[in-house]
Amino acid sequence: MVMAGAPREKHVGVSGPNLWPAADAAVMQRWKPKLKTLEFDPMGIDEDDLLNLALEIFLEIGVHEGLGIETEKIKRFLLGVRDRMLENPFHNWAHVFDVTQTCYALVLLSKGREILTDMQLFGLMIATLCHDLEHPGVNNQFLVKSKSSLATLYNNESILEKHHAFRAFELMLHPGIDLLSAFSKDQYDAFRQLVMSLILATDMARHNEYVVNLKNHAKGEGVQGLDPLFYMEILLKCADISDALKPFDVTKKWTLRITDEFFLQGDMERASGMDVSCMCDRTSQSRVAVQKGMIDYIVRPFCLLLAEVIPAFQEAFGQIALNRSSWDTYDDAVLLEEVGKKDTGLTKARTPLRVVTWNIAAVNNNPFEYWVTHGQTSQSEGYAKLMTDVQMLIDNPETRDFKVGEVVTDDMIQELVVSMTEHGCSGVDKLVDVWRAEYKERYAIGYS
C-alpha cells in the first residue's frame, strides 16, 4: 500500500547515536512566551526548533525528574517521536507539536494541575505527543476499505489509535530510550492504562460518546467536578481538533494542510477503485466547505459544551465564531491565493531519500521491520550495516548514479499512454509533459 507520507531518518534504533539540535536563540525568544497561549503557529518553524520548544514544555511542567525520568531520556524520546512522524501534509511533526502545545495551554487555562497528579500530567503530555505516532495520512475507513493488515489485526476498531498507542510504548521501551525504567510494575501498569485510554479517546468514531458525557455534566462545574481521566480525555480531544480555536491566519494554513491530506486519500481511493470519501473528493469538494462543516458539526458543538462545563474556556473559544464568520467571505480560490504552499511550511521539493523500512510497516505491522528495528541479534546488526552502506550510496552516489530516462524509456511511456487512452483515462497529455519536464532527465539517486 502506498501511503501519502514519506519517512525520515531515524535517530533512535539502527541509525546511530542521538543528536540533540542546538536551540536557535531568536526562535526561542520569540515563541517561548506563546507556549502557554492558543496563538502559537508551528508552521514555518524549523523542526529542530520545535524539538527544543517541545522540551521547553516538559521543563516548564517540571514533573519528569520527580518521577525518576532524566531530561536526557526526554530528549531521546522527543527525537524518536519526531523521527517517526511521516511527512504527511497534516498528520506530521508540526501537528503533533501543535496538539501537545495546545493541550499544555488548555491545562494552564483551566487550572487542570489542581486535579492532576504528576504522573497524570506527565501521561497526558506523552499521550499528546504520541496520539498520531506514525500516522499514515489516511483514516480508519480507508484502512478498512483497503483491507489493510492493520485493520485485520485490530478487528476494524480504533485501528490507527491502537497502532499509535502500540508504537508509543514500543518507543518508550526502546533500549536506547528506556523512558519508564524508574517505574515500579504498578506504576507502569497504571501509566500504560492512562496513556492508552487517552490516545483511544481521539478516535472520532467515539466522538458522540464524549458529547453525551459532557451534556451530563452541570454547567459551570469546572475542573474540580470532573473525573481526572475524563478531563484529560476531553482536553486531548479538544486539542486534536483545535485548528478553529487559533487566529484566522493560523487556521487557514491548517485548513490547506488537512484538505491536502484528505484529497490525497481521495486520489488513492479513486486509483484503487474504491468509493471516494465525500470530504476527500477533490473533483467535487470545496476546501472551505470542508472547514465550515468541521466547525459546524464537530468543533463548535463540542467546544461550546466544554466551555459550559469549564467556564475558563469561554473567552478563548470565542475565536471559533470569529473564524466561522470569516470563512463566509472565502472560497477556495481566495484561500489558495492568500495562503499558498510557501506559507504553510510545505514545499514541492522532493523528499530526500532515506533508508527506513517503517513507512509501509507502520500500517502493515510488518514483523520483518520489527526484527530489523528492535532485534538485538548479530543478524539485525548486519542489516543495520547494510542500511548504512546503502545510505552512503544515496548520500554520495558519484559515478554510480543514473538518469531515470535510462531505465524508464520513451517507448515505455508511450506504451503507458496508449494503454491509458484505450481505457479512457484523462490527463494523458499532461502525464507526458510532466515526464519530459520533471522526470526524464532527473538522476535516480541524487535526483538533481
How does this structure look, described?
Helices cover 57% and strands 0% of the residues. It has helices at residues 25-31, 47-61, 71-83, 93-110, 118-130, 140-145, 149-153, 159-172, 185-200, 207-215, 228-240, 248-271, 287-309, 314-327, 332-338, 358-364, 367-374, 378-395, 410-422, 428-439. α5 runs parallel beside α11. It contains 20 helices and no strands. The protein has 448 residues and is mainly α.
List keywords for this structure.
448 residues; 20 helices; single chain; mainly alpha; Catalytic domain of cyclic nucleotide phosphodiesterase 4b2b; 57% helix; globular
Strand-pairing-aware structural class: mainly alpha
The outline comes out as globular
Cα-to-Cα separation, first versus last residue: 27 Å
- Summed up, the helix count is 20
Low-confidence runs of at least 5 consecutive residues: 12-18, 342-383
Can you tell me the CATH superfamily of the largest domain?
3'5'-cyclic nucleotide phosphodiesterase, catalytic domain
What is the alpha-carbon Rg in Å?
Answer: 23 Å
Secondary structure topology:
Elements: H1 25-31, H2 47-61, H3 71-83, H4 93-110, H5 118-130, H6 140-145, H7 149-153, H8 159-172, H9 185-200, H10 207-215, H11 228-240, H12 248-271, H13 287-309, H14 314-327, H15 332-338, H16 358-364, H17 367-374, H18 378-395, H19 410-422, H20 428-439
